[in-house]
Amino acid sequence: MLVLTRKTDESIVLGKDIEIKILGIEEGKVKVGISAPKNIEIYRKEVYLTIEEENKAASKPQNLDQLKGLFKK
């Protein structure tokens, strides 16, 4: 893991297209702005993990009858 120290209005650049800028620091919270192409998905980690879990659950048959129903002609 790379650890950097940044002040307000300083940035980090990832590749050619992504910039992460520190917008402010107040009451122990850091406000971050991210500039990236529209085709790049950006999620807070807790949201991303929830999406992953929901996708895993949706890909599993709920019961054996559902699975059998997929193969009926």
UniProtKB/TrEMBL annotation:
Keywords recorded for this protein, A-Z: Bacterial flagellum biogenesis, Cytoplasm, Repressor, RNA-binding, Translation regulation
A GO BP annotation: bacterial-type flagellum organization
GO CC field: cytosol
MF terms in GO: mRNA 5'-UTR binding
UniProt-listed Pfam families: CsrA
Membrane-spanning residues: none
Subcellular location: Cytoplasm
Main localization category: cytoplasm
Biological function: A translational regulator that binds mRNA to regulate translation initiation and/or mRNA stability. Usually binds in the 5'-UTR at or near the Shine-Dalgarno sequence preventing ribosome-binding, thus repressing translation. Its main target seems to be the major flagellin gene, while its function is anatagonized by FliW.
Subunit and interaction comment: Homodimer; the beta-strands of each monomer intercalate to form a hydrophobic core, while the alpha-helices form wings that extend away from the core.
Protein family per UniProt: Belongs to the CsrA/RsmA family.
Protein name as it appears in the record: Translational regulator CsrA
Gene: csrA
